[in-house]
Write a structure and sequence with these properties.
With 334 residues, this protein is an alpha+beta fold. Helices cover 26% and strands 25% of the residues. It contains eight helices and 14 strands. Helix 3 runs antiparallel to helix 8 and helix 4 crosses helix 8. The longest helix has 20 residues. The chain is globular, with a radius of gyration of 20 Å. It starts with a strand and ends with a helix. 47% of the residues are buried. It binds adenosine-5'-diphosphate and manganese (II) ion (3 copies). One manganese (II) ion binds next to loops.
Length: 334
């Protein structure tokens, strides 16, 4: 039986890249290593028409839970034809930082929030109006509070079958809004897995006639935005509280640089309300969901553990976020 390999990559759409994929058929029992492949970069914002070839190199492979059998998903990085990283390839710089600071053993757990849409409005929103205000949807149960659970369960099963390290899921504060968490894993591993989990989310929802979006503020007004809280620790932070405080201080010293790479439209989401800190300020605190960075209460009790950077948008690029956090904190911890 031939093997269908879905080559998945991150495109050049501005300001927020999108996922693309296409299928390569390989003979069964072939070479263990997947071959490089190519695509038309002029159709993805990655090349001009007259020099349109871009190269796909598989970097992370998983069993395909959609097609089953011997079929594979292959997350790829994009290269130029001289096999150097393409300008849209943010993975290469992340890998460099991950290797430079590997002695620190950085770990990330990312909480990916997202929103289902159908017929041009969030799933659970009535035509031409609004549902009851926020209050009972978060971690809710029942047909009046929860919308899209069948899709969410199918996505969770797909991720687990693909071998992704999902640590949990929950319904969120706005109807049709959900979250899954990936990790804890190293910077490259968590980012590769998050991109693949995002692709599976779109792909699984497609079969239900529903679209999923990572838009950071899908509904204006008194509705929560969608974030990607980024939980982080190093070996030192996992054993010593002073390293926890040092990490928060280090993030504060580079707040503006981080905000600039935490996802397009972050100013609309980090307003200072709806469980956020304003993007113009930096703060950290124990149990504080209104701070930029939260120290979980158990971490203060145990005097060791991890911190939660609450600022990244749902539409952030995990290669950029984990690169920055690793670089900023590990440089400061020394
Ligand atoms: P919240 O209470 O903010 O909703 P979640 O339970 O959704 O938190 O997510 C917490 C995340 O933190 C999970 O992905 C978990 O794997 C991750 N995590 C736990 N311990 C660590 C650690 N030591 N370093 C990094 N991430 C961690
Ligand atoms: Mn969470
Ligand atoms: Mn959440
Ligand atoms: Mn959180």
């Amino acid at each position: 039986m031939s093997i269908k390999v879905e080559y998945i990559w991150i495109d050049g759409t501005e300001p927020t890249a999108r996922l693309r994929s296409k299928t390569k058929i390989l003979p069964a029992g072939g070479d263990a290593e997947l071959p490089i492949w190519g695509f038309d970069g002029s159709s993805t914002g990655q090349a001009p028409g007259r020099a349109s070839d871009c190269v796909l190199r598989p970097v992370f492979t998983a069993p395909d839970p959609i097609r089953g059998g011997p079929h594979l998903l292959a997350l790829c990085e994009v290269l130029d034809t001289d096999l150097t990283p393409h300008r849209t390839n943010t993975r290469a710089a992340c890998l460099e930082v991950a290797e430079r600071f590997s002695d620190h053993e950085p770990l990330f757990g990312i909480e990916q929030e997202y929103t289902f849409f159908k017929d041009g409005r969030p799933l659970g929103f009535p035509a031409g109006g609004f549902p009851a205000p926020q209050g009972f949807y978060y971690c809710g149960v029942g047909a009046d509070e929860v919308f899209g659970r069948d899709v969410v369960e199918a996505h969770l099963d797909a991720c687990l079958t693909a071998g992704l390290q999902i640590s949990g899921i929950n319904a969120e504060v706005m109807p049709g809004q959900w979250e899954f968490q990936v990790g804890p894993l190293g910077p490259i591993e968590v980012s590769d897995q998050l991109w693949l989990a995002r692709w599976l989310l779109y792909r699984v929802a497609e079969d239900f006639g529903i679209s999923a979006t990572l838009a950071p503020k899908p509904v204006k007004g008194d509705w929560n935005g969608a974030g990607a809280h980024t939980n982080f620790s190093t070996r030192q932070m996992r054993s010593d509280y002073s390293a926890i405080v040092d990490a928060c201080e280090a993030l504060g010293a580079k707040a503006a640089e981080h905000i600039a790479h935490y996802g397009a439209g972050i100013e609309e989401r980090l307003t200072g309300s709806h469980e956020t800190a304003a993007f113009t300020t930096f703060s950290y605190g124990v149990s504080d969901r209104g701070a930029s960075v939260r120290i979980p209460w158990q971490v203060e009790v145990a005097k060791k553990g991890y911190i939660e950077d609450r600022r990244p948008n749902a539409n952030m690029d995990p290669y950029q976020v984990t690169r920055l956090v690793t670089d900023t904190v590990c440089s400061a911890l020394g």
